[in-house]
Amino acid sequence: MAVTPSIRIHLNDPADDDAFRAWHEVFAAASSHDRGPDAPVWTEVELGAQLRAQRSSSTTELYLVHSPIEEHSGASTPAIGAMSLAFPLSDNRHRVDLGLYVEPGSRRRGIGSAMLEFVRSRTREWGRRVIASEVCRPYGGGGTGMGAAKIADAEASVPGIAFAEHHGFAIAIGDLRSECPLPLDSELIRAIADEARPSHEEFELHSWTGDVPEEFVDRWALMEGLLETEAPTGEREIEPEATSAADIREQEAIFVEQGRTSFAAIALAPSGDIAAYTQLIHSSVESMVYQWGTLVRGEHRGHRLGAAMKAAAAIEFAQSGLEARAIVTYNAEENEHMLAINRRLGFRPVERLEEVELNLDA
Fold first, then answer.
1. CB of 119 within 8 A of CB of 128?
2. What is this structure's pTM?
3. Which of 199 and 73 is assigned the larger pLDDT?
């Protein structure tokens, strides 16, 4: 594959288990080093099922990075870097989502910069112009400043932020990672549901465990497609996703490979459209629950559907008997309404996440 003056970059074969294992070792080492031992880091099994799957709506390229010393010595050395490049195929064809990881002991030698130069080139080869990524930093202090704020306004002492700023990335939106310890307080959850009920009596609520029922899957796909743009977007250059029922079924097949279980809730408006939805994903491998998408359509807000959805999915999970350490969720810092619901449920912020973007045409 591509060669730079200081590193060698190899495209992983999706069928090569050893190559993915090496990729995951770098990813896990870098993520744990940057985010601390308590941060949720997906296991090899879970991440492999997600990143190596053949999807109709996107394609992902995984790259391993090695030192050129190996070329001359003939010795096999551990990878010093790893990258994932996800290219949407059905929508947002101006973007590439980047994960860039440098093994902690190999940093401050220009390796990350050389890797990013390769990403710039590959992005251009795909005809894309926006590179999107994420930078995590400890929770604490004030906000990062949204809108067109530059990363220089954030905590430059965080290596990932300093790296992003140096290479021209800007903050598009700031998120909070919050956690709610388990088990849930069942009386509190039912009280929240009871309090919200009078505000949405004209809506029909459904909840379930497992795959989305066939009668709802097309409407569910529409909600997932709208999530990126109807939830707060900050300065992200993003458009609604063209999510289909087939995309939903592909993701559900991946859940099976990962050993994950879905718990979901929807609210149907009198028209029959889904007015609100939410989804919890239990990881049996990690003993963790992830709060995935939650959305209340704009025209249906003000009926306490967000609280109702969260409570309904939580009750569905509690009835399963599955155990986990905590529920993890991510919310835009500007989404005060959803953050307030989460605080009532018992969530507390533990980490900041900056979604950053680099526009190659700017």
1. no
2. 0.89
3. 199
Residue 67: phi, psi to the nearest 5? -75, 145
CA distance 271 to 295: 18
User: What domains sit in the chain, N to C, each tagged with a CATH number?
Assistant: 8-178 (3.40.630.30), 183-324 (3.40.630.30)
The full 3-state SS of the chain, as one line of letters, equals CCECCCCEEEECCCCCHHHHHHHHHHHHHHHHHHHCCCCCCCCHHHHHHHHCCCCCCEEEEEEEEECCHHHHHCCCCCCCEEEEEEEECCCCCCEEEEEEEECHHHCCCCHHHHHHHHHHHHHHHCCCCEEEEEEEEECCCCCCCCCCCEHHHCCCCCHHHHHHHHCCCEEEEEEEEEEEECCCCHHHHHHHHHHHHHHHCCCEEEEEECCCCCCCHHHHHHHHHHHHHHCCCCCCCCCCCCCCHHHHHHHHHHHHHHCEEEEEEEEECCCCCEEEEEEEEEECCCCEEEEEEEEECHHHCCCCHHHHHHHHHHHHHHCCCCCCCEEEEEEECCCHHHHHHHHHHCCEEEEEEEEEEEECCC
Distance between CA 241 and CA 176 in Å, rounded?
23
In this predicted model, what pLDDT tens digit does every residue of 26-45 receive, in sequence order? 999 999 999 888 888 999 99
Which tens digits make up the pLDDT trace of 145-159?
Answer: 433 344 444 444 577
d(CA 313, CA 291): 10
